[in-house]
Structures are given as C-alpha cells and as structure tokens.
Amino acid sequence: MKKILRYLNLWWIMSRNSFSIFLSLKLSFSIFLTGKILRFIFFISFLFFILQGTKTLAGYTSNQAIFFFLTFNLVDVMAQFLFREVYRFRPLIVSGSFDLVLVKPVNALFRVLMGGADVLDLITIPPIIFAVYYVGGLLSPTTSQTILFLLLIINSLFIATAFHIAVLALGIITLEVDHTIMIYRDITNLGRFPIDIYRQPLQGILTYLIPVGIMITLPAKALMGLVSPSGVLLSFVIGTVAVLVAIRLWNFALTKYTSASS
Amino acid sequence: MKIAKYLSIFKISFAQEFAYRLNFIMWRVRNVMQIFLVFFLWDTVFSDPGRVLFGYDRAKILTYVFGIMIVKSLVLSARAADVAGDIYRGDIMNHLLKPMSYFKFWFTRDISSKALNLLFAAGEFAILFIILRPPFFLQTDPLALLGFFLFIALAIFIYFNLLFIISSIPFWAPELGWGGQFLVTVIIVEFLSGALFPVDILPQMVQKILLFTPFPYLIFFPIQVYLGKISGTVLLGGLSISLFWAMTLWLVMNFIWNKGLRAYQASGR
Question: Which ipTM did the prediction report?
C-alpha cells in the first residue's frame, strides 16, 4: 500500500511537471488543442453525413454507430493521456540517456510509460465522457449492461497498457518507436467503426491477435446487450495475458539494452 | 549542368530513404492501415451492389478509395515538411551558402520522395487489389486522363507551396514548427482534401465553400476528374480556382520567405 501511494505521488509530480512545460508554451498548446478538437468534429460530422445517407452501418443504427466511435475516442484519449511519455522514448534510447532512468530508485518502466501525462488529452476527456454518457443513454442500457461496459473499458485500458509496454520494449530492441506507436494508433483507429465491417481474416486478427475488437467494439456492444458471458470472460483473459506477455517482453528487452551513445 | 546538379540531389535523396528502411516500410504499413479503414467502411456502406449513394455506385466509390492511395503518394508525399526543422536547428545556413536554389533543392527531394512512394503505392495497390478484388472503374477517355494528370501537377505545386508557407513559421516562432504542420497537414489537409472521404458527401453549402479553398484540389478534384464525374464548365471552373491558388500560394510563399530570411537570426548555429 505504501509503495502504491509513493508511485501515485510520483505520478502526480511528474504529471504536474509535464503540464507546466506544455502550459508554458501557450500558443503551441492552443494550436494542438484546436487540432484535436477539429479532428474530432471533422470525423463525427463525416460519420453523421454518411449515416444520414445510409441510416444504418453494418446493421447498427445511427446512435449505435456513433456510440462505437465515441467509445473508441474514450479509450484512445485516456490511453494517450496516461502514456504520452512513450512518444518521447526514442531520444532516450538513441542518445543513451535511458541510463539516467535506469539508475534512479524508481521502476524504469513506470517512468518511461507514465512519466509525462498529456494535459491536452486531460482537457478533452470530460467532453468525451459526457458524449458517451449522453449517446449511451439514448441506447437505454440496463444497470448490469452499464457496469459491464465500465468493466470492459478498464480491461481496454489494460490492453492499451500492454500495447504501449510492447512498443517500449520494441524500441529498445530495434531503436524504432515513432512509427511503431503510430502503427498502434492506426490499428486502434480501425476500431472507430464496429469491427463487424471488416472481412475475414482481418476481423479475426482484430479480435484475437491484435485485440482492437475487445478494446473498443466489445465494451460498446456490452452496453447494447449484444455480448455473451463467454465473450466477456475471454476478453478479461486476453487483457490479463496481454499485460503479462508485454511485461515479459519488456524484461527481455532490458537485457538487450546496450547503453550505446551514452 | 544545372540539371545534373538536381539529378544528383534526386539520386542522393532516393538513396537516403533506403538508409532508414524500417522507417520507410513502417510508413508504408501505416498507409495500408489507413486504406483498410476507408475501404471497409465504404465496402460495408455499398454492400448492396445496386446501391447509389451521394452520386457514387460501388465501383466508383471503391475506385475513389484506391485512387486515394495513388494520388496521396503523388501529392502528399513530400520531404519539404523537414524545412521547418532546417530553420529552427539553423541547418538552413548550410544550404543558403551553397550554389543552388533552396526551393529547387526541396522540390527535387519532394519529387524523389514521390517517385519512391508511388513505386511502393503501386505495389500495395496491386496486392490489395488481388486480395480485396473490388470492382474498379477504368477511365478510358484520354481527355479525362489528361485532365487528371493536369490537376495532379497543380496539386503537387499547391501542396509544395503550402508546406513551405507552414514551414516558414519557425523564422518567427521556432517552437511552433510542428504545431503548424500538425494543424494544417495532419488535420485540415487530411480531412478537407478528400483523403479520407469524398467531399461531395457533405451538404451542398459546405461543398460550395470548400471548393473555393485549395484543399479539395489536392485529392478530391483530381480523382473526380478521373472518375468522369467532373467535366465541361465545372472542370474549367475548378481549373481556374486551382490555378488561382497555385499562383497565389507561390506569391505568398515568396513574400513570406523573403520576410522570414530577413527575420532569421541563425540561432542554433
């Protein structure tokens, strides 16, 4: 318990520092925030205009299709808020400055994974939660469906954590982070729409191998009452296994770190 | 002699892309992932082969999606995005001292990047075509094909000028180099150029306003000309606006660049 509190305190200090750095660059901050808001508005407008023409998407109603998109945004924004530091990992590895992280009495993975929360995403989380709450309400879920949705969102964050740890580990082994993290983003972007729209074998890959379906489509389906108990159980198993495998990969990657350039 | 100089830049730039092979391959993988999203979305929307929506049938919309791959590699693949870094790191000094045009240097690098990306995009196009087997609209009218290539050439010039204008920001505000590019190239160009969806699914009023901006002429308009959806006076109108933006952006770019060089303090050097 004492250890958890210590790390919570550390996270708070690191996040506060990260926020201060970003907030000191006011114009840059405004441009990035505008960009993120515009991207959301453009995409939801696009979805809205398509649904005006088609009325349904892969058998889902307009509200359901929009709810899939909002669920994607919720998971995506929360993961970016928590794990923004991953995007800054490559310079540490290439320059050898990662040595300075390793010698500190703090878990190195915790430092490079969660050491720089993103204030921009923090700002966008409340409106997205409100939108999820509002559109979700239009789907008339029961209490149990809502609880299941929330549990599956937590599971999604575990899978997102596993992905980010894997990116860090691959960064140590291959010195490549920038494109790997963006490929992760592109893959999760496929979850903007229900994965039912993809053909096999892509749909199978997105469900089990790269579990975007479990991260995004399944929680939304749970709120609509469209999942089976075995599907839910399997998703929690995949979430747990993904984190365990990612941590093992990280430990393996650490043994390959050469401290070159330092 | 002059051509030989830029030909050498072309060759070096082409070889440089292969120096970071993994980076390049991953960049191409990202492009394929993005095409998957758009392709399967429209594939689902047009799952009924007889459906006509927003003026598209299944063959035309899926040709539009595949067209995005090729047109993006021709228009939006550009090295000139690195100019901002040249300015705030001070590396631009090295170039300004050399006996060559800085614009032509970057334009040559852009052409090299486009050639390489087009090569890979054509390969991906063929592979995805075999895997996904979409119905494809093959344009056979030579005039439409000529119009398509003309609009592509204009789009390349418009985008080059646009990138240079955005990349000039670090002359005055070095910390905004990436922010400006993020807003214009990643958000505005991506959505308003038609790289994600055809602009004509938007309401008429929005379309009319958008067609007065340079963005739809980067992706949307060239593909529409290829699909034969635009011809006659509408095509001439589009050509006039496209030419207007090409000229205007070129003049603005030159003006800003001259002002920027005067404001430049060679920091970082």
Answer: 0.86
